[in-house]
Design a protein that fits this description.
- The chain starts with a strand and ends with a helix.
- The strands form 2 sheets. Strands 4-3-2-1-5-6-7-8 form an 8-stranded mixed sheet, with helices on both faces.
- 41% of the residues lie in helices and 16% in strands.
- The chain is an alpha/beta fold and 437 residues long.
- Strand 10, helix 11 and strand 11 form a beta-alpha-beta unit.
- The chain contains 19 helices and 14 strands.
- The protein folds into 2 domains: 235 residues, 3-Layer(aba) Sandwich (Rossmann fold), CATH 3.40.50.2000; 191 residues, Rossmann fold.
C-alpha cells in the first residue's frame, strides 16, 4: 500500500545552501509530484549554519524545531546583531571542537538537541499532529543525531515505519576523527539504531555492504543529479569554446579534504611547465568552496604553480551548477589518502552529489583517481570522454593532447540518465511503499 504521509527528518534542507541538503530536497520534490504529502522536520538554524539562499520545493512543508520542540518558520533567523555574534562564536570555537572530536569523535554533536526535542513535553502541537498522521518517517544522516531523532519520532508516532538514510557512514567513517574507544561506541550506537529501523537505505553498494553486516536489509539509492536544475544552469550559462588567448578553465566545486588534493595532476603540471610544454597563463584551476587544504598544498609544496590557481568563497547552488556546466573541464579527486583499517568501505562508498552533477553536466571530467574504484568506474562507464587516471605520467601525457586543450560537449548516455534523481526518487518510493505491504 502506498504511503501517503511522509515525514523527513534532516538537518540540512532549504533554504539553507548546503550540498548535504540536495538529496532530500530532490526526494521531497519528486515525492510530492507523485501525489504524496511531505513534511520536513529539521533543526532550527542560525547564521552559523550557512547562507539561506535556496528555495523550498513547492508543496513541501518545512518546520524547524528548537531544543524544546517548539516550531519555527523555516529559515527564520535571529536579529542581525545576534547572528553576527553566533558566527563569531562558532569561528572562535572551531579549535576547541577539533580537539574534542579528536578524542570523542562524532558523539558530542550539537544537533542532539533536535533528537531530544522529540521527547520534550513542549513538543509543538503541529509536530505531534504530523507524527500522528505519518505513514513513514525518513531520517537522513549526517549528522548522526537525525537517526536518533527518527527513532524518537517513531516512538511518538506509534504507527509510522522508520527508514534510516545514510548519505555517509556514521560509524567507521574514514573522514571523521576520534579515538578507538569513540569509534567503537559510534559503531555500537549505529548498529543499535539500524536494527530498530524498518528499512535502511545507503547511497552506494560499499556502504550498503557495510550496513548489511549489522544484520539488516539495506537498499541502495544513489545520490544522483537533478536534471531540471542542470537544464536551468545550462540555459543560463552555456559552455562556449574559449576565445583565442583565454586560459583553459578547470573548476572544482565544494569542500577539499586531504584526500581530495590531486597530487598526480599537480606533479604533471609542475613537470610540463618545467619542460616548457605548458606556458604561464594558459590554464586556470578555479576552486569554489572551502579549499584551505588545497590552497595550503599549492603554497607549501608547489609554490611555482600558484599562478595557475584561484580560490573563491562558496556560491549559491544555482550559481555552482552554472560554473560547472560552463567550465572547460571539471576536476574530481577522491581517496588520495589511504583509509585506515576498517574504514575502507566508507572511503570506497563515497558517491557525492557532485560526482553525478559532473557526469550529467556535459563537460569532460579530469579525475585524479583509480578507474578501479567505484567512483572511477562510474565515470568511465558514463563516457569515454572523461579522463580517469592515478599516475603523474598519465596526466603529463594527456595534458599535452588536443582532447585536453580543445574540449567538446560530452553526450549523455542512457547510463547517465538512469542517475537522475527523478529515477532515484521512484526507486525510493518503492522502498517506502514496501513497508506498507
Amino acid at each position: 500500500m502506498a504511503a501517503q504521509n511522509i515525514v523527513l527528518i534532516v538537518h540540512y534542507f532549504p533554504p539553507l545552501n548546503s550540498s548535504g541538503a540536495k538529496r532530500m530536497e530532490a526526494m521531497a520534490k519528486y515525492f510530492v509530484r507523485d501525489g504524496r504529502s511531505v513534511t520536513v522536520l529539521t533543526s532550527r538554524k542560525t547564521a552559523a549554519d550557512g547562507v539561506f539562499s535556496e528555495e523550498i520545493p513547492a508543496g513541501v512543508r518545512v518546520i524547524e524545531l528548537d531544543g524544546w520542540g517548539r516550531a519555527h518558520a523555516a529559515g527564520a533567523l535571529a536579529t542581525k546583531e545576534t547572528s553576527q555574534r553566533i558566527v563569531a562564536a562558532a569561528a572562535a570555537n572551531r579549535g576547541l571542537k577539533a580537539a574534542v572530536m579528536n578524542i570523542l569523535g562524532q558523539l558530542p554533536d550539537p544537533r542532539l538537541v533536535l533528537a531530544f526535542s522529540f521527547l520534550s513535553p513542549a513538543l509543538a502541537k503541529e509536530v505531534k499532529a504530523v507524527l500522528r498522521d505519518a505513514d513513514v518517517i525518513v531520517a537522513s544522516c549526517p549528522p548522526w543525531p537525525t537517526l536518533l531523532a527518527g527513532l524518537f519520532a517513531k516512538w511518538r508516532s506509534r504507527k509510522a515505519k522508520l527508514v534510516l538514510d545514510y548519505r555517509d557512514q556514521f560509524s567507521r567513517c574514514h573522514e571523521m576523527p576520534g579515538t578507538r574507544a569513540a569509534k567503537a561506541m559510534e559503531e555500537w550506537i549505529d548498529r543499535s539504531l539500524a536494527r530498530r529501523a524498518d528499512a535502511v537505505v545507503a547511497v552506494s553498494e560499499p556502504m550498503a555492504a557495510y550496513y548489511s553486516t549489522f544484520g539488516v536489509r539495506v537498499d541502495t539509492i544513489l545520490n544522483g543529479y537533478d536534471p531540471e536544475k542542470l537544464a536551468t544552469a545550462q540555459d543560463a550559462a552555456p559552455w562556449r569554446p574559449r576565445a583565442d588567448g583565454a586560459p583553459l578553465t578547470i573548476r572544482y566545486l565544494g569542500l577539499v579534504t586531504p584526500g581530495r588534493v590531486p597530487v598526480h595532476i599537480l606533479g604533471a603540471l609542475e613537470r610540463l611547465r618545467g619542460e616548457g610544454k605548458i606556458r604561464d597563463g594558459s590554464l586556470l584551476f578555479e576552486y569554489y568552496g572551502d579549499a584551505a587544504v588545497m590552497r595550503d598544498a599549492v603554497e607549501t609544496r608547489y609554490p611555482a604553480l600558484a599562478q595557475f590557481f584561484r580560490f573563491y568563497a562558496p556560491v549559491a547552488y544555482g550559481k555552482a551548477l552554472e560554473l560547472i556546466v560552463s567550465a572547460d573541464h571539471v576536476l574530481m579527486c577522491e581517496n588520495a589518502v589511504a583509509a585506515l583499517a576498517g574504514e575502507e568501505k566508507s572511503a570506497a562508498g563515497i558517491m557525492t552529489t557532485k560526482l553525478f552533477e559532473y557526469i550529467a553536466s556535459a563537460r569532460p571530467i579530469l579525475a585524479d583517481i583509480s578507474s578501479k574504484t567505484l567512483v572511477g568506474s562510474v565515470m568511465v562507464q558514463a563516457s569515454p570522454d572523461h579522463f580517469v587516471a592515478e599516475t603523474e605520467d598519465a596526466f603529463a601525457s594527456y595534458m599535452t593532447t588536443d582532447k585536453f586543450w580543445q574540449p567538446h560537449p560530452v553526450v549523455a548516455s542512457e547510463v547517465v540518465r538512469s542517475f537522475s534523481r527523478e529515477a532515484q526518487a521512484g526507486q525510493y518510493l518503492g522502498v517506502i511503499d514496501r513497508l506498507g505491504a
